[in-house]
Write a structure and sequence with these properties.
Layout: E1 29-31, H1 35-45, H2 55-60, H3 70-85, E2 90-98, E3 108-117, E4 124-132, E5 138-147
Antiparallel strand pairs: 1-3, 2-5, 3-4, 4-5
């Protein structure tokens, strides 16, 4: 509990349902995954596939180098969403699919746009989300349904 005893959620950093128009982009998040982060993620996730940390193993699979875990890219998309949602928004559904490789050392752009807004008064918004590599390829894409607060 905060020192002043106030348990109310502060919504200053959360968008309101009424303020997000159809087609609007949410703030892009930039990431630069490193080989060290891949090793750390392997330890945290239990995904020790050598294509994520061993250049020879990646080359044996026909890859040009080690590749970023798809689940790590998915986690970056989740961070983009939760950063945008702030303290009063709620993530209700999240689904992604893996489309192309992401390589460490490359800038990864995490993006999203408003695809649908519910008209039932519940504040639900559907977003199209994706991760994009420097070649403009969508490496991970999907959808998220979030619930935003309504204006009083």
């Amino acid at each position: 509990m905060p020192p002043d005893g106030d348990c109310d959620l502060k919504m200053s950093n959360t968008p309101f349902f009424e303020d997000v128009p159809m087609g609007a982009e949410i703030p892009t998040l930039e990431k630069f995954p490193t080989p060290r982060q891949l090793v750390m993620y392997a330890g945290a996730s239990g995904d020790y596939n050598p294509i994520h940390y061993d250049r020879d193993a990646a080359a044996a699979k026909g890859l040009p180098g080690i590749v970023v875990h798809g689940q790590l890219v998915s986690a970056c998309l989740m961070q983009m969403l939760t950063d945008w949602l702030g303290t009063a928004g709620v993530l209700r559904k999240y689904s992604v699919s893996y489309k192309a490789m992401t390589f460490p050392g490359e800038k990864l752009l995490l993006k999203g746009t408003i695809a649908k807004k519910s008209d039932t008064g519940d504040g639900l918004v559907t977003l199209s989300i994706w991760a994009e590599n420097p070649r403009g390829e969508k490496t991970v894409s999907g959808t998220a349904v979030v619930q935003l607060p309504r204006m009083a």
